[in-house]
Amino acid sequence: MANLVGVFGTSHSPALITPVSDWPALEPNIARPGLDRLVGDVRDLWDAHEARFDAATATLRAAVLAVEPDVLLIVGSDQGENFGPRSAPVFEMYLAEHLDASAANRRDEGPDQFRISLPIARDLGIDVLKYLCHNGFDIAHTSETVDEYGIGHAVTWPMRFLDLVDSGLALLPVVTNVWNPPNVPSVERCVTFGQALRAAIEAAPAQARVAVLASGGLSHLVLDEELDARVLAVLRSDDVGLWGSIGDDELRLAHAKHGLPLRLNGTAEITDWIIADACAQAPADIIDYVPAYRTRSGYGVGMCFARWNLRT
């Protein structure tokens, strides 16, 4: 039987794959008023932020490898890459034999750069998918991508900044819908999906050691420290029922209250952390949380890195 050996979470900002000197290019060109609570030049903190990111990703990489997984199941959201008018399922598994995609930053790196080729744990994925379909979840699957970079950056970027491309791991991508309403998963649905995902892994007949990695979040592209604090409190708790304190619209409409387009709502990626937390069924250890502002107007990312203390 397959065995869940670890659950982890990471933000996947382009700041993790580009030097500080390139961070100004990450700032949106949509003007917003400055925030009184942000004093001074936020760029003065960027070197310190980069050092914290480097330390956190090194710790996270070591933690992933320490549980000796065979398979890394990455839960991440599609952001206009392969979901869209043709198809936008709530949950989708990538079940090709191999993953061939680019981990480029998509700004000044083309799809032919940072190519990665990794095996997909397809047999395990089929078993997990069958279990989920038999237990109340209609999971889509695909073996093709339409984006020139391949599968979305939620899957490829962590492999790059965690330096796991040559780790010998097989991947099992689980992609969630956050940018194609109305069928975006609710907080409650993510909780039940995470619980079912763990049961599916543990019921799979394959002899595999599986680690789960949530990729994305926390709040962005307008950073909301108050929301992040509530999310962190639930992650550190032992009660997945506390996710009910996070409203669906707080995630789905985080962009709208700031008058921004949907393409700037990364806050909805918190749903992937909810899935991981419900899968772990244990409190999280927050390796680091950095409210990483890019501008005094509040643009930025709640950068978070975590591991869950699974019970044996």
What's a concise summary of this model?
By secondary structure, this protein is an alpha/beta fold. Helices cover 28% and strands 21% of the residues.
CATH level 3 topology: Protocatechuate 4,5-dioxygenase, Chain B
Distance between the termini: 16 Å
CATH 2nd-level architecture: 3-Layer(aba) Sandwich
Number of strands: 10
The helix tally amounts to: 7
Helix content: 25-40%
Which structural class should the secondary elements be placed in?
A: alpha/beta
| Overall residue-averaged pLDDT value | 96
Largest sheet: 8 strands, mixed
What integer value in Å does the Rg equal? Answer: 18 Å
CATH homolog superfamily: LigB-like
Under CATH at level 1, the class stands as Alpha Beta
Envelope shape: globular
Secondary-structure element order, N to C: EHEEEEHEHEHEHHHEE
Q: Which blocks of ≥5 consecutive residues have pLDDT under 50?
A: none
Count of discrete structural domains: 1
Strand order of the largest sheet: 6-3-7-2-8-1-10-9
Strand content: 15-25%
